[in-house]
Design goal:
The structure holds two protein chains of two kinds. Chain A folds into two domains: 117 residues; 156 residues, no CATH class. Chain A is 77% helix and 0% strand. Chain A has eight helices and no strands. The radius of gyration of chain A is 19 Å and the shape is globular. Chain B has a six-stranded parallel β-sheet with strand order 7-6-5-8-9-10. Chain B has a four-stranded antiparallel β-sheet with strand order 2-3-1-4, with helices on both faces. Classes of the chains: A mainly alpha, B alpha/beta.
C-alpha cells in the first residue's frame, strides 16, 4: 500500500511539473519548455496508466467500489483525450487545461480517504462500467473543449476589437483549430454522454428496479443532456460555428463540473462519493 | 603588435540616399583596390554595401588617427569622390564599439525597418566574399561567426523580428490567426488594384489554395486571374460568388459601399457559417463596417491594418531593448576571446622558449658525460630539465592569466613579460619598438 502511495505521489509531482512548465513555456514563449512539459506530462500519464492497471489487477473485485479509483480514472481519461486531440488536431495548446485539470483531479483523488461505494449486484458490472467510462470520457472531452472555448472567445474578441494583437502569442493556434476541437468534442462527446446516461438508467433499472428516482444528479444530468442535444443538433446541421458553440460548451462543462463536485461530494444521494 | 578592430560606415541615419549612392562599395576588393597592401598595415578587411548602409570593417595594428585617413582615402578613390565629403558623413567605431555596432547591424537593430531579416543575409554575403578574396583572418572570421550567432539568438529569444510590419503581411498574419494554414482557403479580390494584388500575392505565397478576381472590366480581372491561375468574373457576378470566398480583399474606386451587412448575412447562411475575413483597403470604404458585428466575420479596413502595423512596430522597439542586453552579453564574450587571443601566444612562446633552453642545456650535459649514459638516466635528466623550466614559468603564466581576466590592461603585462623573457628578440623589427615608444610618449 505504501508503494502505491509513493507512486501516486510521484505521478502528482510529474503532473504538477508538467502543468507548471507548460505555463512557464507559454509565458516566455519558449518552445523547448513547452515540449518538455508535454514529455513530463506524458511520463506521468504512463505511470498513471500503470498505477491504474496495477490497482485493478491486484485489488480486483474490491477496487471498483473505491471512490478514489474513479476519480483517478477521471484524471486519466482527461489526459487520454488530450493526447488524442493532440494527435488528431496538433493542438498542443490545450495542455493549458489538460495538465492542470489532471493534476487537480488526481490530487483530489489522493486527498480522499479510501471509502467504499455501495454497488449492489454483480451482473450489472457491464452497465456500470459503461456508465462510468463513457461519462468520464465525455467529461474529459468537455473539459478540453472548455479550454478551447475560452481561448476561442478570447482570441475572437481580440481580432474583432483590433486591439493589442501583438500581445497574442505567435504560437497560439488559429480560431479554426479551436473550433475543430469544439466540433470533435461535440461530435464524440454527445453520443458518449448519451450512452453514459442511458447505461446509468439501465443499471438503475437492474439495481433499484426503478429508472428515474428524482435524484438531483439525475435531474441535472437530464437538463445537461437536453442542452447538449441542442448543441449537437446545431453543430451537425451547420447552423452554428465558432463563437456560439464555444459559449455553449463552456456552459455545459460548468454545469457538469458543478453537478460532479456539488452533488457527488456535498449531497446525500446514491451518486455520492463522500466517504 | 596589437591588432585592433575598426569600423567605418555610412547608413540611412547619417547619410542621404544621394550620398550613400555616391559611396557605394559594390565590387570593392580590399586587396586589388589597395586597402590591404603588402606592408600589412591592414591585416583583415570586410566590406558591406547595401542600399541602406556602406561599411568597412578592418583589423589593423595602427592607431585610429593613422588608419582612418588610409581607409577613407581608398574608399573615396574607389568611388571617385571627394574624401572630405565622405568624412562629413562617416561614423567610426574602434575596438569593442565596432564589435557592438556589427552585432547590432547583424541583429537588424540598426535597420530602417527594425528587425527586417534581409540585412543578415547581406552580411553573410559580404562575409562569404571576404573569405573568397582571402581578406578575412582570424579575428574577422570569429567576429562574423559570433555576429551571426548573436543575431540568431536575438531572433529566437526576443520578438524583434516577429509580428508583421507591412500592411499586406499584417493581413496575412491575421488570416492565419483565423484560418490556421491557408491551404484550404480561397480569396476573392474585388477590384484589381496594386495593393490588393500585393496582399493576394503574399496570401498565395503563404499557401492559399485558390483566388477569384472580380473587377468592373473583365479584361483586367482576366489578366490578374491568369497570372495567379485564378478565376475571373465581372462585378455583377461578385455577390453570387461571395460565399465561395473565405478571404475577401476589396479595393474598388466605388463611391459607396458595395457589400452590405445584410448581404453578408445571407452569404454566411449559404456557406454554413464558415468564418470570413474581409480586408477593405479602399478609400472610401467598400464594405459596410457593421459586417464586423456578425459572428464568425472579421473586417479590417486600411486604418485598422495600419494600426496593427504601428502596434507591431512599437512592440519591436520594446523588444529591441531586450536584444540590446543580449548584444552586450555577446560583446563581452567576444572581448574575453580577444583578450585570451593576446595572452595565449605569449604563453606558448614562453613555454617554447623554456623548452628550448632546457634541451640546449641537456645536450651540453650529455656531451660532457659521454656515451656511457644509459637510456633511463638520459630520460630522467630530460624529465628533470623540462620540469624545472615548467615549474619556473608556472607562476608568471598564472599571474598573466589572472591579470588578463581581472583587468583590461592585460596588454601591459603581456608586453612586460615578453620583454623580461626576451621573447620577441628575433621577431619584432626595430621600427615596431619605435612606434610603441611614440605611443607611450603621447
Amino acid at each position: 500500500m505504501l508503494s502505491f502511495r509513493l507512486l501516486d505521489f510521484f505521478i502528482a509531482i510529474l503532473y504538477f511539473t508538467g502543468a507548471l512548465s507548460f505555463l512557464i513555456g507559454l509565458i516566455y514563449s519558449s518552445k523547448k519548455t513547452q515540449d518538455r512539459s508535454v514529455i513530463i506530462t506524458a511520463t506521468g500519464f504512463g505511470l498513471h496508466s500503470l498505477d491504474l492497471v496495477l490497482k485493478y489487477t491486484l485489488g480486483i473485485g474490491e477496487i471498483l467500489t473505491q471512490s478514489q479509483f474513479y476519480i483517478s480514472l477521471l484524471a486519466w481519461s482527461f489526459l487520454l483525450i488530450y493526447f488524442f486531440l493532440w494527435w488528431r488536431l496538433k493542438l498542443k495548446f490545450l495542455s493549458i487545461t489538460a495538465a492542470p485539470m489532471a493534476l487537480l483531479i488526481f490530487t483530489g483523488s489522493l486527498a480522499i480517504s479510501p471509502s467504499t461505494l455501495p454497488i449492489p449486484g454483480i451482473l450489472q458490472g457491464l452497465w456500470f462500467g459503461l456508465h462510468i467510462g463513457s461519462l468520464f470520457i465525455s467529461m474529459a472531452l468537455l473539459a478540453l473543449a472548455f479550454g478551447a472555448g475560452v481561448t476561442y472567445i478570447y482570441l475572437d474578441r481580440k481580432i474583432k476589437s483590433k486591439t493589442r494583437l501583438s500581445n497574442v502569442s505567435k504560437d497560439m493556434p488559429s480560431l479554426h483549430s479551436f473550433d475543430r476541437a469544439n466540433h470533435l468534442a461535440v461530435i464524440l462527446g454527445f453520443p458518449l454522454y448519451t450512452v453514459g446516461v442511458l447505461s446509468g438508467f439501465i443499471w438503475a433499472a437492474f439495481t433499484w428496479k426503478t429508472i428515474f428516482t428524482w435524484d438531483p444528479k439525475e435531474v441535472i444530468t437530464v437538463i445537461i443532456w437536453l442542452i447538449f442535444a441542442w448543441l449537437f443538433h446545431k453543430r451537425i446541421s451547420g447552423a452554428w460555428k465558432g463563437k456560439k458553440p464555444a459559449q455553449m460548451i463552456i456552459l455545459i462543462f460548468i454545469l457538469t463540473l458543478t453537478s460532479f463536485i456539488g452533488i457527488n461530494f456535498f449531497t446525500e444521494t446514491h451518486h455520492s462519493l463522500r466517504p | 603588435m596589437e591588432q585592433k578592430i575598426y569600423l567605418f560606415g555610412l547608413n540611412h541615419k547619417t547619410a542621404q540616399i544621394e550620398i550613400r549612392e555616391k559611396f557605394a562599395l559594390t565590387g570593392f576588393n580590399p586587396i586589388h583596390d589597395g586597402l590591404m597592401d603588402r606592408d600589412g598595415k591592414v591585416g583583415e578587411a570586410l566590406v558591406l554595401s547595401t542600399c541602406n548602409r556602406v561599411e568597412i570593417l578592418c583589423v589593423s595594428g595602427l592607431n585610429l588617427d593613422q588608419i582612418a585617413p588610409i581607409v577613407l582615402k581608398k574608399w573615396a578613390e574607389f568611388c571617385r569622390q571627394d574624401p572630405d565629403l565622405l568624412k562629413k558623413h562617416v561614423y567610426t567605431y574602434e575596438g569593442l564599439e565596432a564589435v557592438n555596432h556589427l552585432f547590432t547591424v547583424a541583429a537588424s537593430l540598426d535597420s530602417m525597418v527594425l528587425g527586417e531579416p534581409q540585412i543578415l543575409g547581406q552580411l553573410k554575403d559580404a562575409y562569404r566574399k571576404a573569405v573568397e578574396k582571402k581578406t578575412a583572418g582570424v579575428i574577422i572570421n570569429r567576429l562574423l561567426h559570433k555576429s551571426f550567432s548573436a543575431a540568431k539568438r536575438i531572433r529566437t529569444e526576443t520578438a524583434v523580428s516577429s509580428s508583421a510590419v507591412s500592411i499586406s503581411y499584417a493581413a496575412v498574419e491575421l488570416a492565419k490567426k483565423i484560418f490556421g494554414e491557408l491551404q484550404n482557403q480561397r480569396a476573392m479580390l474585388i477590384g484589381a488594384g496594386e495593393m490588393a494584388e500585393l496582399a493576394a500575392l503574399h496570401l498565395l505565397n503563404s499557401g492559399l489554395k485558390d483566388i477569384m478576381v472580380a473587377n468592373r472590366t473583365l479584361e483586367r480581372a482576366q489578366e490578374l486571374a491568369n497570372r495567379y491561375k485564378g478565376q475571373a468574373m465581372c462585378m455583377e457576378k461578385m455577390l453570387e460568388n461571395l460565399h465561395r470566398a473565405d478571404i475577401v480583399i476589396s479595393s474598388t474606386g466605388a463611391a459607396t459601399t458595395i457589400i452590405r451587412a445584410s448581404q453578408v448575412k445571407e452569404v454566411l447562411k449559404k456557406r454554413k457559417h464558415q468564418p470570413m475575413f474581409f480586408i477593405d483597403i479602399a478609400v472610401p470604404r467598400d464594405i459596410d463596417p457593421n459586417v464586423n458585428q456578425l459572428d464568425n466575420v472579421y473586417l479590417y479596413d486600411i486604418d485598422d491594418l495600419k494600426e496593427v502595423v504601428e502596434e507591431n512596430l512599437a512592440n519591436r522597439r520594446e523588444e529591441a531593448d531586450k536584444a540590446g542586453e543580449i548584444i552586450r552579453e555577446e560583446v563581452t564574450k567576444f572581448s574575453d576571446w580577444l583578450k585570451s587571443l593576446d595572452l595565449s601566444p605569449t604563453i606558448v612562446d614562453l613555454l617554447n622558449r623554456g623548452e628550448l633552453i632546457a634541451r640546449k642545456e641537456l645536450k651540453k650535459t650529455m656531451r660532457v658525460l659521454g656515451p656511457e649514459v644509459d637510456e633511463t638516466s638520459r630520460k630522467a635528466m630530460e624529465q628533470l630539465a623540462l620540469s624545472i623550466v615548467g615549474k619556473l614559468y608556472h607562476e608568471p603564466i598564472v599571474f598573466l592569466k589572472r591579470r588578463s581576466r581581472e583587468e583590461g590592461s592585460s596588454q601591459r603585462f603581456i608586453d612586460l613579460t615578453r620583454r623580461i623573457f626576451n621573447l620577441d628578440q628575433e621577431h619584432i623589427p626595430e621600427n615596431a619598438h619605435q612606434s610603441r615608444k611614440k605611443g607611450i610618449e603621447k
